[in-house]
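Can you give me the bound-state structure? Components:
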Amino acid sequence: MTSEEAETAARMFKALGDPVRLRLFSAVASHEGGEACVCDISDVGVSQPTVSHHLKKLKEAGLLTSERRGTWVYYRVQPSVLAAMGRLLAGAPTGV
Amino acid sequence: MTSEEAETAARMFKALGDPVRLRLFSAVASHEGGEACVCDISDVGVSQPTVSHHLKKLKEAGLLTSERRGTWVYYRVQPSVLAAMGRLLAGAPTGV
DNA sequence: TGTCTATGTTGACGTCTATCGATGCAAGTG
DNA sequence: CACTTGCATCGATAGACGTCAACATAGACA
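Here's the bound-state model for the whole set.
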């Protein structure tokens, strides 16, 4: 595993390394239709700006995508990234 | 996903959320025999105390175990934890 | 016993991060 | 146009984190 690969992968793991973000991510992933608007998942015990902050982090890490439809903003997971992280953990290193 | 589950899982993801720790973990996981002494994997670009610090973090997160044999300390991965994280990412939520 | 090598621990320092209140922006509704 | 709702951004603050130098400890060997 090269230094660059480690940084890329670590960025994703780091994004899931916060309880609030993990719950938000799980909520989006398990929501009906594979997507959820912020109002559906914002009940994680923190204020609304904090939720927005964490969703932005998850988006920056490439784990979520967002789309505005009318009044609401819908978040959706990036399946390919999930698969890559799963492989990494399953014992199939990227390039070692 | 409850708050407690999120905290437990987030602690593991967080442990892998640092490039140095991810490289150390990958090095141990891919090393011959599934274990490695610190001298084998300490070439990650940081000082020796920092390596020790990160290995301690990984051990606290339950991702590694350590065993002293003579002069050297050998680290080994916890396979069950890996499988659990893999399942989490593969789309089999723990309790949602 | 003394010394060297291999690791772990401590203390300090600078940086990052999570959180909040206040505010701003977009879109629907009257 | 005014008002409300949903979400993002800004500024500030407290706490966590990564890193290193210095020191401590454990084992091997002469």
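A couple of observations. The helical segments of chain B are 3-15, 19-30, 38-41, 48-60, 79-90. The CA atoms of residues 64 and 77 of chain B lie 4 Å apart.
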